[in-house]
Design brief:
InterPro entries: 4pyrrol_Mease, 4pyrrol_Methylase_sf, 4pyrrole_Mease_sub1, 4pyrrole_Mease_sub2, CobF. It contains seven helices and ten strands. With 251 residues, the protein is α/β, with parallel strands linked by helices. It has two domains: 3-138, 3-Layer(aba) Sandwich (Cobalt-precorrin-4 Transmethylase, domain 1), CATH 3.40.1010; 141-246, 2-Layer Sandwich (Methyltransferase, Cobalt-precorrin-4 Transmethylase, Domain 2), CATH 3.30.950.10. Strands 3-2-4-1-5 form a five-stranded parallel sheet, with helices on both faces. It has a five-stranded mixed sheet with strand order 6-7-10-8-9, sandwiched between helices. The longest helix has 23 residues, at 76-98. The chain starts with a strand and ends in a 5-residue tail after the last strand. The model has no long low-confidence stretch (mean pLDDT 93).
């Protein structure tokens, strides 16, 4: 049984983010698996369905599956590890069911499979004989900086990409003045000393209901927290990211 698995980046919510390489890989697949994340996050699978309807021919089969929920437990890394095991087991089941004689499988990854997405880690849990390939896509950081019209870094200066959890637990890392923060469900920026810090924030980047805000952290932090809460209540889910910069190049 020869199985090829392509992880295809599809951008951050705008079908126009799809690259030609992504379209080619989708059409070459015998099977595409689409994850369902529950009614509250139906936007995510609806976009994937729309992309498939627009790109695919009748030769590619599309199958949907229910994505398991991550356990709520104090040990975050252990919970994520168990969650990834459960997802890999579902993928293996779907492969055995729908590609028993081998073939080409594809998964459509929100953003890019290489940046703050665990699809690659999950895929490596599968049978080692499955051949993996990766098609890059537009990332949330690209969409964020384009939406605000700002460069990712200050002139000749580094950028640290981190998570909201690490920012909340460890504070601003030393030696760097620009932070790109992802996976922040608790608005860690609101607990930072705001003096001299500028923030560029965005949610649902690339989607019709994209929302952005920016300004000195002291002036806009509370507003962003309130906006984020309202948007999550309205849509049932939220994907957001932000850029923080301090010092003379904070704008």
């Amino acid at each position: 049984m020869a199985i090829e698995l392509a992880l295809i980046g599809i951008g951050t919510g705008n079908p126009d983010h799809l690259t030609r390489a992504a379209e080619t890989a989708m059409r070459a697949a015998n099977l595409i698996l689409l994850p369902r994340k529950g009614a509250a996050k139906s936007d995510l699978i609806d976009l994937r369905r729309a992309i498939c309807a627009d790109v695919l021919t009748d030769t590619t089969r599309v199958v949907e599956f229910d994505l398991p929920s991550r356990e709520a437990q104090p040990d975050y890394l252990d919970a994520v590890d168990r969650w990834h095991d459960a997802i890999a087991a579902i993928w293996a089941r779907e492969i055995a069911t729908h590609l028993p004689d081998g073939g080409r499988l594809a998964l459509l990854v929100w953003g890019d499979p290489s940046l703050y997405d665990s699809t690659i880690r999950i895929a490596r849990r599968l049978d080692a004989r499955i051949r993996l390939s990766f098609i890059p896509g537009i990332t949330s950081l690209q969409a964020l900086t384009a939406a605000h019209g700002v460069p990712l870094n200050a002139l000749a200066a580094p950028v640290l990409v981190t998570t909201g959890r690490r920012l909340r637990d460890g504070g601003w890392p030393s030696g760097v003045d620009t932070l790109a923060v992802m996976l922040d469900g608790h608005c860690a920026f609101a607990d930072l000393p705001p003096l001299g810090v500028h923030i560029w924030w965005g949610a649902y980047l690339g989607m019709p209901h994209q929302a952005i805000d920016a300004g000195p952290l002291a002036d806009v932090a509370a507003r962003i927290v309130a906006t984020r809460a309202a948007l999550r209540a309205e849509h049932g889910w939220i994907m957001d990211t932000y850029l923080l910069r301090r010092g003379e190049d904070a704008r």
